[in-house]
Amino acid sequence: METNYILEMRHISKSFPGVKALDDVTLCVRPGTVHSLMGENGAGKSTLMNCLFGIYSKDSGEIILDGEKVNFHSPSEALNNRVSMVHQELNQVPNQTVMENLWLGRFPLKYKLIDEKRIYEKTKEIFDDLEIDIDPKMKVGSLKVSQKQMIEIAKAVSYDSKIIVMDEPTSSLTEREVEHIFQIINKLVNKGSSIIYISHKMEEILRISNDVTVMRDGKWISTNPARELTTDNIIQKMVGRELKDRYPKRNAKVGKVMLEVKNLSSAAPCFKNVSFELHSGEIIGIAGWLEQSEPKYWKSYLALEKKEREKLL
Asked: pLDDT value at position 296?
């Protein structure tokens, strides 16, 4: 039985000087599904999506969107055709408000002037629907990474997108924030949007995906229903061989102290009384919440006199 696809990228190739980044890659996405795109760094995932989004021009192949051949020459052309992309590297204007970032380049006008009331209402409407608790009038520069990520997703939704590409959207988020993004994805899929989801997190992929495409060295390797895959299956497809021991035992002996840190403190980037030792043959892991200090702290800190700042150390 023939399958209907909302998006078909067939036999896509793309070369850069000295490198063939994509070699005859095919990706077909069913409507109203989450289609995950996996592969090691350098496999060609982001390059393929950049060809879709009009950032790169493909060398060969064809792209069919909702039954019609397309070839976007710019991101704005893709957005106007309801294809949006949430990039891993956020590109926002920190000194502008949330709502200004959301509608940048397409402000609703009233008497040839920007209609701020309408911008606020439209932003609030999208945020309420996605359960995003951010004041549209806040400056983007004062927000946490997770909040900035939510704004980018809301911006993609504001284009009424039928295809939304999410490139590593949870790489800097806490577990609770990841759950919120999954709720948003479920809501978008239920409304008929299709999500192309790029991630290295196996558990996420198997949990939210309908289909999974694996790439390796710029080539298509396989496309399978997520329910037929396991973590080991995916890893084997990504690296091209079976990994019998994902976490091999370490044989190195821990020796003498090579580095010693005692009571290290700094007001920026805000840590206090940090001490540790690093021995030869040892690996130390450092963990903690991202952006633990709130922007309000920085404003208060910078307003203090130099002597007062030093007391905080």
From this structure: 47
77 and 180 housed in the same domain: yes
Q: Which two tokens stand for residue 272?
A: 């206090």
155 shares its domain with 271: no
Q: Domain check: are 94 and 231 in the same one?
A: yes
User: Looking up tokens 């990841």, which residue turns up?
Assistant: 178
Domain shared by 224 and 270, yes or no: no
- A 10 A CB-CB count for 225 gives 10
Q: What is the pTM of this model?
A: 0.77
Residue 2 lies in a domain: no
For 222-252, what is each residue's pLDDT tens digit? 999 999 999 888 988 988 776 666 566 777 7
| Domain final position from 239, 268, 290 | 239
H/E run at residue 22:
strand 19-29
Q: Locate all alpha helices (DSSP H) within 10-144, ordered by sequence.
A: 45-52, 75-80, 98-102, 116-130
Q: Tokens representing 86? A: 């949430």
Buried b (16+ CB within 10 A) or exposed e, 84-105: bbbbeeeebeeeebbbbbbbee
